[in-house]
TrEMBL record:
<dbReference type="InterPro" id="IPR029033">
    <property type="entry name" value="His_PPase_superfam"/>
</dbReference>
<feature type="binding site">
    <location>
        <begin position="88"/>
        <end position="91"/>
    </location>
    <ligand>
        <name>substrate</name>
    </ligand>
</feature>
<feature type="active site" description="Proton donor/acceptor">
    <location>
        <position position="88"/>
    </location>
</feature>
<feature type="site" description="Transition state stabilizer">
    <location>
        <position position="158"/>
    </location>
</feature>
<dbReference type="InterPro" id="IPR005952">
    <property type="entry name" value="Phosphogly_mut1"/>
</dbReference>
<feature type="active site" description="Tele-phosphohistidine intermediate">
    <location>
        <position position="10"/>
    </location>
</feature>
<dbReference type="GO" id="GO:0006096">
    <property type="term" value="P:glycolytic process"/>
</dbReference>
<feature type="binding site">
    <location>
        <position position="99"/>
    </location>
    <ligand>
        <name>substrate</name>
    </ligand>
</feature>
<keyword id="KW-0312">Gluconeogenesis</keyword>
<dbReference type="InterPro" id="IPR001345">
    <property type="entry name" value="PG/BPGM_mutase_AS"/>
</dbReference>
<comment type="function">
    <text>Catalyzes the interconversion of 2-phosphoglycerate and 3-phosphoglycerate.</text>
</comment>
<dbReference type="GO" id="GO:0006094">
    <property type="term" value="P:gluconeogenesis"/>
</dbReference>
<keyword id="KW-0413">Isomerase</keyword>
<comment type="pathway">
    <text>Carbohydrate degradation; glycolysis; pyruvate from D-glyceraldehyde 3-phosphate: step 3/5.</text>
</comment>
<feature type="binding site">
    <location>
        <begin position="159"/>
        <end position="160"/>
    </location>
    <ligand>
        <name>substrate</name>
    </ligand>
</feature>
<dbReference type="InterPro" id="IPR013078">
    <property type="entry name" value="His_Pase_superF_clade-1"/>
</dbReference>
<feature type="binding site">
    <location>
        <begin position="22"/>
        <end position="23"/>
    </location>
    <ligand>
        <name>substrate</name>
    </ligand>
</feature>
Amino acid sequence: MNNVLVLVRHGESEWNKLNLFTGWRDPDLTEKGIDEARQAGELLKKDGYAFDIAFTSALTRAQHTLSLILDELGQRTIPVVENQALNERDYGDLAGLNKDDARAKWGEEQVHIWRRSYDIPPPGGESLKDTAARVLPYYEAEILPQVKAGRNVIVAAHGNSLRALIMKLDGLSTEEILKLNLATGEPYVYRLNPDGSAASKKTLTA
């Protein structure tokens, strides 16, 4: 099979810039984020990638990133599927708070546990395990079949929804995935085997 699956975290958002927990809140990209998305498109174009279908979340920053990438590729007419299954992890009561203020309120250790443990959610929110529980079934039902059918697929989503997916593709343990940080606007290019496992992976950087 060896068709292409590309994963891209959205470009820098207004709340990334302000150091706020974002989750399901819906800020747009900064100027830097717009540039990052365009650069991702340029990198993909330079390497000769083209796509048959695209997936993204229900959040503006991911959708905007995808549209900028497709503009660079000259591919705005391909089908685009939006679904909240690909949304960022829900940070619950932390959403909208400055990360430093959250540490002052709950303590650095507690906030670190919420951010970096696999299965301990913040109050009213999701853990990475919870995020994976919605991302992976959607991937298996909707995205992977497209790749298996011979199509090249791009997914523009979020740090934690993509970490959940990369954990599966790379065969990472719950400890290993916690150490993985995804840069904004950086494409990860997978080629998949017939069984859906990763045959190869590379990161495109400027």
